[in-house]
Amino acid sequence: MPGARVHRLYEDAAERILEQDPSADLAMVGFPTSWREAELQVCVGPVCDCDRLRLVKDHSGIWVCIVQTSSIPALLAARLRTSNLAREGLRVVLATRKDSVHEVPKALSQHQFQAEERGALHGLRSQTELNGSPCSIVRYDQESRRWLVRLDIESEDNEILVSAANLLPLWLPEQAESLAEDKAESMPRGAESDGADAKSTAAEDKTKRSAEGPGQRKAQEADGDAEMEATPSAPASKAKAGKGTVKMSHALVVTGFPLWDLQQITQYFARFGELRTILGANKNKGGKRKLLVAYCRKVNAKKSQQHVHGAEIDGNKLSAVFADDSSFARQQEAKAAARPKNNS
């Protein structure tokens, strides 16, 4: 793990790059040298809405990733600073300008804290260097009407009082559901209600109710993988995009994917183009996901394959191959042939 001197060099490089790009909200540095934008998107995807991500090389030779987000930059910084990557040397530097321009979602601002819950500091004016700091809630101080929090630093003076306006929950108990409305502006439309695709809608209802047994899903039969559980089709800009069966030439078999939820998976793959459906998002195979990711256009599937195949996540490399270029299609044809005919 890099020492204090290397960390300072990293942070200096990040600060210089941030000065050159006033639109950036924060910068990351100290990530694996082999990483490029695709790998960094995978890193940032689960913790925030990323509007723009770009790699820039500082004059010192250090690669810096600058991020522009519609989320609260200080909250994103705090989440990244508590990640496994931070323990491996990742450094996160916030832009010097105030992050108060980012509206705090109601689900975050009205959160009721409890002792030992995790939080993040933001919007501080007198101690701006603490913005983006993760902390633990100690108690509410009635006399000062502030929260006493313990910072994640090794120091005897690591407890401070902060106003409720400067404290956010690091994670909500049910993050996906609580933030669904707040993310609506930045999320692709239609993931939860694609009326044009009745098959995907039915599959989504089943997924939301609970994890149900395999088989007997029409979308699953049409797409031909009896071992994968159907999930909602991704957003489509046109109603007709959800109709019809999946073309194997437009679909990728992705293995080694992390155990993200459907919303995170959809956001990641939708970056490359309009999706038709994603299968397998509820299957855990040895701590990883095996996905069938189908696009409406072959050119988007090709773009996705080029970025995803070989990308590294948590030390594991992803594999992304076209469904019709592997044994996958032949396996599904054999399964379909062996399946009893249903005349209904």
| Corresponding CATH architecture of the largest domain | 2-Layer Sandwich
**Cα-based radius of gyration, to the nearest Å:** 22 Å
Average pLDDT number: 75
Derived from helix and strand composition plus strand pairing, the structural class reads alpha+beta
Low-confidence stretches: 176-244
Which sequence of SSEs, written as H and E, runs from N to C? HEHEEHHEHEEEEEHHHEHEEHEEEH
Q: CATH homologous superfamily of the largest domain, by name? A: RRM (RNA recognition motif) domain
- CATH fold-type name of the largest domain: Alpha-Beta Plaits
Number of extended strands: 15
Organism: Symbiodinium necroappetens
InterPro entries: Nucleotide-bd_a/b_plait_sf (IPR012677), RBD_domain_sf (IPR035979)
Protein name: HXT3 protein
GO molecular function: nucleic acid binding
Report what the structure shows.
There is one protein chain. With 344 residues, this protein is an alpha+beta fold. Helix content is 28%, strand content 22%. Strand 6 (134-141) and strand 7 (146-151) form a beta hairpin. The longest helix is centred in the first third of the chain and has 17 residues, at 4-20. The chain starts with a helix and ends in a 6-residue tail after the last helix.
